[in-house]
Every structure is written in structure tokens, then in C-alpha cells.
Design brief:
four-stranded antiparallel β-sheet; alpha+beta; six-stranded antiparallel β-barrel; 427 residues
Length: 427
Amino acid sequence: MEKNKSNSNKIMIVILSVLSLLVVSYVIQAAYFRRTGAILTQSAAYVTESDSTPVSGIAIRDEAKVANSVNTAILIRKADGIYQPAVDDGENVAKGDYIAYKFATQEQGQAYRQSVEIDAKIRYLSLFQKMGNTKNSDISALNSDITLSINKYLYAIEKNDFTNCEELLTNINYSLISRQTATGENSDFSKEITAYTDQLKVLSNQIGEKTGISAPFAGYFVSTVDGFEQCYDYKKLRTDGITVKQIEKLLNKKPSETNNAFGKIVGQHIWYFAFNIPVSQASNISSGSTLYVSFPEKGIENLEMTVSGMNKTGDTLAVVLKCKSIDKDILKLRKENAVISLGNYSGFKISNEAITDDGNGTIGVYVYSGQIAVFKPIDVVYRTDSYVLANPAIDEEDKNADQNKVLKQYDRIILKGRNLYDGKVLG
């Protein structure tokens, strides 16, 4: 025991000694740089970066109830039966189309739901059966689909949102079978198809009679209701806009009761996303401009949106974005954390320490070239607290220009140096 303790102490002494040497070395090196003006450089690297900012906002759609209490966008489950959706989420329906069925008992409704799921499995297994052994699919894309589907499922479980778990599991299964088929692992699904078909016959007998529920008007069907369908008037948003305080109130608002609702119809494909942003971060936001918005937590990337309205209060700007893209996932967006991409910028990534001027007001950097300091002018296109993105101020194709003054890839940009000037000999 004492021997082990002694060995541990020796190891600790060695570690502390090495750390002490590293610290002393760093101090000596730093002092040397300060005293001698030794040259520190960085390699010029050309990059493209996105100017983006995170925001919290709310989706506003055409979901309000119409005047007649029977024909509502919020479809109410009545006490006289069990209701099951008859169409998929995001499906565009016409007025009068069946969007749900009413059953007399819970067992009938459950049997119908199972029959829909099994029918879908039969359809996509039949599709794979026709495809046969094919290896032409993009395996990396299929792997990405599988990863995305699993991440969505895990996120839903983490948030205790079990609304779409069955659908998410189906998507995972679909992606796995797609990969199996693409790699030739399995192409004969006849046994599975036969078994599912037998199950479907049994369920059909259990379902019995059902009553169809028609869509009150044309639109997109969504099988879930979140309680924010009437949080803000869709028509008012389009005509009067929204204020900073109104957005704050919406983000703090609690959902309305939704126990009796089993779905809704979204009347318009155009929807809006409203958020507040500090004015200092909104220099690239202007009315009518196009932005790209991602919702990372929902796996939605780079939706193209247009700035349809802005309303300033003090140092905060209320922004309304209009979007024409729509699918089943987009239709379920509500209070969301989003990333707003304000633009992409390309240039040489240069530390702010290197930015200087030539004494005549021209901005640029000094480059270490053959032990000579060469001043190369730049045009800054994007600036942060620690670095800039910049392009050469001299056109590389200009035959009359001094090409030695053009900043190029892998140039050694000087970060530290004393009394630099163009043409100075560096020791």
C-alpha cells in the first residue's frame, strides 16, 4: 500500500514539473516576442461563412374558426362516437372530402387505425418487391435519412411528445427497408405481404360501419391541435402587422384547451413566422428581402422566406417573415427556436490583429515574403469582434496592377511585428 502511494507521489511530482516547465517556456517566449518584435504570422485561408443569428418566434397560419360552429377549422370530437383521421397529415383536401371517420366503439376506431397502417406497409413492401435487387440508390443519402428519422424520434421522446411516434417509427422502418433493398440484402417481401394482407381481412370485419366526416372547406389537414390556432388573427397580421409587445405576449401565452379536438384544416398555404430581434443584429433585414430560416430542433433546414413586415419599438425590431413552403412537418411548427441566415460572405479570414493601414489611409495587411514585409491592400466584406473576411483590393486580372500586392491563398499574414512598413527587411 505504501509502495503504491509512493509511486503515485512520484508520478504527481513529474507531472507538476512538466507543467512548470511549459509555463516557464511560455512566459520566456512571450517576453522574447515583446522585447524583440519577433514575427508571428497566420496563413491566408479563403473561406465562406454564413452570417446567422438565433431567434425565438411563433408560426401564424390561417387556422381560425369560421362563423358557423359546425364548420370549424378546429375539428371537434363529439361525445357520440370515436373519430379517426381518414387522410394523412399535410394532405391537401377539397371542401366535402372525407377527412375523418366516426365509429361507434373504441375497438372499431382502433381496428380502422391499424388497417390504415397495415395497408401502408403492404403498399411500400409491394413497391420494394417490384424494385428487386438494385444497388443504384445513394447509400449515404439513405443513411442520412435513417439518422434524421431516429433523431426526430428521440427528440420527440425527450420532449414527451408522443403524438407522432408511430409515424416516426414507420419512417425509420421505411428507411431501413429502403437501405436493405439498395444494398441487395433482401428483395423478397412476399411472405410479409401475405401476412399483412391476412391481418387486413380480419381487421376489415372488426371495423364494421363508419360515418364519414367532410372537410368544411378546402385546405391542408393536420391531425394535431396545439391550442395556439387562434393566438393571433391571420388576416390582421397581413393587414396591420404585429408589434414587439404582441410577439412577446404570444411567446408567453399558454395554449387553449384542446381535449375535444382531433384535427384542423389550414386554409392557406402561405404562413408567417414572427419574432423579435435587437436592432443591432438586424442591419441586413429589410422589407421584401429574402432570408433563409432553419428550425434545427425539427430537422427543417433553409426555408426560403420573405420579410413581409417590420415594426420597431426602442432597440427591438418585430419581424414577420412570409413563407410559401408547406409540408406535414412545417404545418406543425408553432413556438420555435430558429436560426435566421442573413447572408453568406466569402473572403480571406484574417485576425483583427493583422489589420492595419499603409500610412495613407489604405486598409490592408503586411505579408512576410522572402524576409521582406509586403503591404497588400484589402476590402473587408464581413467583420466580427475577432476577425474579418476580406478580398484583395487589387484585381488579380488587372495587367497594369502590381501583382505582388495581391493577397493570395497561403500568404503568411503578419500578426505581430514592430514598426512595419512596405519593403522592410525582416531579420
